[in-house]
Amino acid sequence: MKLAIYDDLFLLDGYRTYTARTGFPNADPRLAGLLLNHRTVNGIFDDLNPNHDYDHDGRDDWAFADLGRWDPEVNTTRFIEAMPRWREKGVIAFTIGLQGGNPFRSSPPPAGLSTRDVDCGAFEPDGSLRPAFMARLRRILDKAKDLDMVPIVNYFYQGGNRRIAEDAIGTAIDNATNWLLENGYDGLLIDLVNECDSEAYWPALQLPRVHEMIYRLKDDVLLFNDRTGNARVFYVGASFTGSFSVAEKLSQLPEAFLRAVDVLFPHGNHRTTSEIKQAIAALRQRAQIVSPKPLPIVYNEDIEQPATDQAGDWGGNLEHLEACLEAHVSWGNLIRSHQRVPCEDWVAGSEVQRSWFDRTSKLAGEPTAPSGVLKFKHRI
Question: Is the pTM of this model over 0.90?
Answer without folding.
Answer: yes
